Amino acid sequence: MERAQQPLSPPELPASLRAIMEAPYPRFSPAEMARRRAMIAGLMEAAGVDHLLLYGVNRSGNAIQYLTHWPITAEASCVISPGQRDKLFVQYHNHVALARLIASEAQVEWGGDFGIGAAIAELERRGAKKDRVGLIGPIGYRLHAQLSERFGRIADLNAAYMQKRLFKSPEEVDWYRIGAILSDRGLAALRAAIAPGMTERELGAAIEASYLGYGGTNVIHFIGATSMSDPDCCVPRQFPSTRRVQKGDVVFTEISAAFWDYSGQVLRSFTVEAEPTPLYRDLHAAADAAFDAVIAVLREGAKPADVVAASAIIEDAGFTTNDDLVHGYGGGYLPPIIGSKSRPAGKLPDLTFTAGMMVVVQPNVVTRDGKAGVQTGECVLITKTGIERLHNAPRGFARV
After folding, report:
1. CATH number, position 62
2. From CA 334, how far away is CA 202, in angstroms rounded?
3. Model confidence over 3-20: pLDDT tens digits?
4. What is the CA radius of gyration of the chain?
């Protein structure tokens, strides 16, 4: 008997996004890629460089995927020169064939035994001069020293590039919508799996299983499970433990599943076979109220100080925060990174919210002694008049 085939897209995915998800290897439109190239050309001109080196290693360094579609595996470097075809060097040799398929707009070669060595040779072949080479990517000291030995002062374009990544094009937002849907699937799977006897590891396995079949990949699934009557953690744990869920627990989570490099982020809390205790009821009421107050002030023209002022509900209720209250998202953990009044995340950035930015609003409200806490929130898109939700996961403090 033939096995029933799973559809290539989850049923809740809008029809308008199915072609993206169901492509063998999805791609952005030529117009979108041209927009990105023009942006990079502008950064190069402003920095006074003729050539740009993109670098990534161990899946870190998203500029290569942003400009070539290739998600970095072990190591990759890409040489960009106006008027010339990009040259992408990939490690390992057995990764080259797929890189040529995915990064079809670039010339793809094996980087040999030393990826950046091949890139340096390519820069020399292109006639790169001293003090006229720029860099985007997480390059280490040793590699940077070799690059600067040959090309002098290397212009660091990382900050300028990340500043541009704060703003999402309409095509990018569509891909983030897919990431949000996959993240919501992970949350729904967690809610269904929570039961006495389950370990945090098993809950994580249930989360990932909900989206792996649709091409989703794990970015994070932080999970915390603790007794409401005797809590020992106030924020989801970054690494799961072997602790088993018990009746009377609270389970809170932060989940990001990605479609290629485009992920959502959703945060929720649940009680296990019990109603919230008075303390946890008050913690979550403060978190919900803070979320509502923050999204009420977010719009084009708002400032980080507006967010902090709106979140004063938390301190008024007698609580504080552990995690950052708001942070930029999409292509990294981006500015602005904003804490609460009682737990600031450093100096408030001099930044104005603009339509097209994405942020995660995530009030992790905790007791002042740091013993008990809850988490709620999600990724939203800033518009001219407010915010747009990218997630459809139900809000609230649910009992499971």
Report:
1. 3.40.350.10
2. 31
3. 778 889 999 999 999 999
4. 23
